[in-house]
Sequence to fold (214 residues):
Amino acid sequence: IVLSLAVTFIDAVVRPPYFSKIPIKVIFFLALPMLFFVIWREEWDGFRKLFRFRKNGLWAAFLLGIAVFGVILGGYFLLRGVIDFSSVTSSLGKNMGITAKNFLWVALYISIMNSFLEEFFFRGFGFITLKKHMHKSFAYLFGPVLFAVYHVGMLFGMFEPAALILLMFGLIVGGLIFNALNDKFGNIYPSWFVHMAANFAINTIGFILFGIVE
Fold:
């Protein structure tokens, strides 16, 4: 909770340039949680299992990723006449220093590296590891809710309240799906691949909003 809300606070209040925030997220979402596994050595085997590559589940993740990509991109085209997206690019430029000139690099980082950091923190650490120490039902809901709250700092100011609430609901549902994937296959790769697909869709919308593609 502390690490997640700290990053939310940085996004909402401090608002550093996006690339300056990368080392902060690496520390908060990767380095500091890893101290848990270093200090409690009996958890080290569980840490290794988070990254144990298994072929089973990848095909399902691939198909689900394609479906998620289509749903997000299709949702944008269906809702762009209802939801005002005009403030998204100006907010990204003002609050994070993201412009059309550097968006390609931001999109690549978000799709690959940032999705990995979030999957390790919210799913690997905040679900697979957590459910061994708390009731499984609590662990299932805890991570997705925290995942949604963490995004508030980033999305606040980009959308009207109703649209923001809709996005939060979507993030919680997405988090629950990611948890179910990782619960079934025992590592973070399936949810990471689906998360990458979702981010690729979101960044495709970003390219459209920035006028880079039409």
User: Anything to note?
Assistant: The mean pLDDT is 90.
